[in-house]
Amino acid sequence: MSIDAGLADWVAEAMAPVGTVTRKRLFGGAALYCDGLTFAIIAFDALWFKADAQSAAAWDAIDAPLFTVTRDNGRVQSLPYRRAPDDVYDDPEALRDWAMLALEAARRAPPRLARRRSKRAARG
């Protein structure tokens, strides 16, 4: 899987009024950051926005699928990202509207270090 650099550039351009978008390679795709917060990923030739329980109703209202991947062992893994609606690919205002929802979810997410500690504690 390769990253669609044109899509990443489009997101960065459309998000310029909000903040600086950077990217980092991730599982053959890319993670997108706005001013340091992970708010989206590009994978499987699509844009996926970060979601959480508070934003689920908005994503469900447009039937946005959850990001899932099937591992080599057949196990299906999901990540808290929802597929962006089609209009974000050519409408910068629509992209920003959905991206803001994703940024809010990113702000609510616990810091990565805290997530690791809580997973270790749960394992015992």
Characteristics:
124 residues; alpha+beta; Yope Regulator, Chain: A; six-stranded antiparallel beta sheet; globular
Domains counted in the coordinates: how many? 1
Average pLDDT number:
89
Instruction: Count every beta strand, where a strand is a DSSP E run of 2 or more residues.
Output: 6
State the shape.
Answer: globular
Q: Name the helix and strand elements from N-terminus to C-terminus, one letter apiece.
A: HEEEEHEEHH
CATH C-level label: Alpha Beta
User: Can you say what the CATH homologous superfamily is?
Assistant: YgaC/TfoX-N like chaperone
- Oligomeric form: single chain
CATH architecture: 2-Layer Sandwich
Task: Report what the structure shows.
With 124 residues, this protein is α+β, with helices and mostly antiparallel strands. It has one domain (5-123): YgaC/TfoX-N like chaperone (Yope Regulator, Chain: A, 2-Layer Sandwich), CATH 3.30.1460.30. It is built from four helices and six strands, in the order αββββαββαα. The chain has helices spanning 5-15, 56-61, 92-108, 112-123; strands spanning 21-26, 29-34, 37-43, 46-50, 66-70, 76-83. Strands 1-2-3-4-6-5 form a six-stranded antiparallel beta sheet.
Topology:
Blueprint (H helix, E strand, L loop, with lengths): L4 H11 L5 E6 L2 E6 L2 E7 L2 E5 L5 H6 L4 E5 L5 E8 L8 H17 L3 H12 L1
Antiparallel strand pairs: 1-2, 2-3, 3-4, 4-6, 5-6
Helix pairs in contact: 1-3
